[in-house]
């Protein structure tokens, strides 16, 4: 019997799993297939019109797929946005894969793994297990990287709960899992994700360049692991879970791990009660009586897996412009999808290739001598520190949320990939030097960054 199967026999579980025996599953290839007419997927035009009207209120990209075929393909579905906390469900998948390989034992304690931090862990804290961190029940209340102010304000006193006793949504638990993964697997987390998930699933927009370890060494040794991902690639990840971790005949994530990690470990999630129950880095809830489990990130970054409808829904907001939807607002979009689904799929429906153009801009050869002066550390009025680096004859913007290519328009103006605004460099006065100015459009969105060097 494999180690992970034995572990699950001795772990006390609550709740139920939602994985069911699905019909023969269809998988996207290099491109998704899409219903030419949504009515053939059983969706009403009036219902989808109501959905599209609501999507115009702040969403950036929205994908609905039924059994591997796209029904709704709205917005910039090929554009990569920051996943925020939806990243954590990707970690759950990767840990599950390496539990299956016998490399990670969910019952290992931090003491056994030699895990510590800047503020040393107590002997009691070191008894927290990997599975406690995944369930947000470590009892370790320490500062962490990439923690929003609400999370910081909500930290209880150290030692107020023992490992496993109390649920608390805390980035210390989630971030430390990347250290554990890298140590126990012997691989870099992002490279392993590329090899184990992105490549087999044929993600169209994923690049290793779009992943980023965010260190805040004054708070913790353990970095946040950040992703930029497109909605259509996020839907592929959801589709992997819809098919119980299997992709085109290959079991990528152990089936029982998918079931256990998307079952409720904690039903009372305190101030997160409107999110539902919590599993192992997955949320679980019912929406209009329909069971779903989902990955959730601040601002509306979501992927919902709905096994009883053979459905996946991916939603992303434009968090580069601080556009955001609340939990209830995204759930309302899901309700509109359910309402629009009025019939069965037509097995003879005409399918077309989903083809979302990726935005590009004509580029010129960069004059590395001319732009060398642009390198340095700049201060943004809201984001904080940004760095400009010359790397492999290319300018790179490092913004604390990741690295971004600067694509030259001319020698002092660049297009910032993914963020999709221009960056202009100007020689500044002593007072302006190494500061950044925002230039807004009529909608009060930032359309240009001015870097004074």
Q: Specify the overall morphology.
A: globular
- Give the biggest sheet: 9 strands, mixed
Give the C-level CATH assignment of the largest domain: Alpha Beta
- CATH homologous superfamily caption of the largest domain: DD-peptidase/beta-lactamase superfamily
Structural domain count: 2
Physical arrangement of strands within the biggest beta sheet: 9-10-11-12-13-2-3-1-14
Number of strands: 22
Describe the structure.
Helix content is 24%, strand content 25%. It contains twelve helices and 22 strands. It has helices spanning 3-10, 45-55, 87-100, 110-113, 130-134, 149-153, 171-185, 189-198, 231-242, 255-261, 327-340, 368-371, and strands spanning 33-35, 59-66, 69-75, 81-82, 211-214, 224-229, 246-247, 250-251, 277-278, 283-287, 290-297, 301-306, 311-317, 351-353, 376-380, 384-391, 394-398, 403-408, 413-416, 421-426, 435-440, 446-452. Helix 2 runs antiparallel to helix 11 and helix 3 runs parallel beside helix 7. Residues 1-22 have low confidence and may be disordered.
């Amino acid at each position: 019997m494999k180690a992970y199967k034995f572990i699950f026999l001795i772990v006390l579980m609550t709740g139920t799993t939602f994985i069911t025996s699905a019909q023969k599953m269809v998988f996207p290839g290099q491109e998704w297939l899409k219903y030419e007419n949504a009515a053939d997927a059983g969706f009403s035009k009036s219902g989808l019109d109501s959905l599209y009207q609501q999507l115009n209120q702040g969403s950036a990209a929205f994908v609905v797929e039924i059994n591997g075929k796209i029904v709704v393909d709205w917005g910039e579905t090929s554009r990569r946005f920051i996943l925020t906390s939806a990243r954590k469900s990707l970690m759950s998948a990767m840990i599950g894969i390496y539990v299956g390989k016998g490399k990670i034992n969910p019952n290992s304690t931090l003491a056994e793994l030699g895990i510590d931090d800047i503020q040393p862990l107590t002997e009691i804290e070191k008894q927290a297990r990997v599975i406690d961190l995944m369930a947000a029940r470590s009892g370790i209340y320490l500062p962490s990287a990439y923690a929003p102010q609400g999370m910081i304000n909500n930290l209880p006193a150290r030692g107020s709960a023992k490992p496993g006793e109390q649920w608390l949504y805390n980035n210390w638990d989630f971030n430390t899992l990347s250290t554990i993964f890298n140590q126990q697997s012997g691989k870099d987390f992002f490279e392993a994700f590329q090899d184990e998930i992105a490549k087999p699933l044929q993600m169209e927009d994923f690049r290793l360049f779009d992943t980023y370890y965010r260190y805040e060494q004054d708070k913790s040794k353990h970095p946040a692991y950040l992703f930029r991902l497109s909605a259509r690639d996020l839907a592929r990840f959801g589709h992997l879970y819809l098919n119980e971790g299997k992709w085109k005949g290959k079991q990528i994530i152990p089936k029982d791990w998918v079931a256990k990690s998307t079952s409720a470990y904690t039903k009372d999630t305190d101030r997160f009660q409107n999110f539902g129950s919590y599993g192992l880095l997955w949320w679980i809830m019912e929406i209009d009586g329909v069971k779903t489990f989902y990955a959730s990130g601040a601002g509306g970054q979501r992927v919902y897996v709905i096994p009883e409808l053979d459905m996946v829904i991916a939603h992303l907001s434009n968090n580069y412009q601080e556009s955001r939807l609340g939990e209830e607002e995204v759930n309302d979009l899901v309700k509109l999808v359910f309402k629009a689904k009025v019939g069965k799929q037509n097995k003879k429906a005409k399918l077309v290739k989903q083809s979302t153009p990726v935005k590009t801009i004509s580029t010129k050869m960069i004059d590395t001598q001319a732009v060398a002066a642009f390198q340095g550390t700049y201060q943004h009025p809201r984001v904080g520190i940004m760095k400009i680096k010359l790397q492999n004859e290319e300018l790179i913007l490092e913004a604390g949320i990741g690295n971004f290519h600067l694509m030259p328009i001319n020698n002092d103006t660049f297009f910032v990939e993914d963020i999709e605004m221009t960056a202009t460099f100007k020689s500044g006065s002593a007072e302006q030097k190494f500061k950044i100015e925002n230039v807004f459009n009529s909608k009060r969105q930032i359309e240009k960054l001015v870097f004074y060097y």
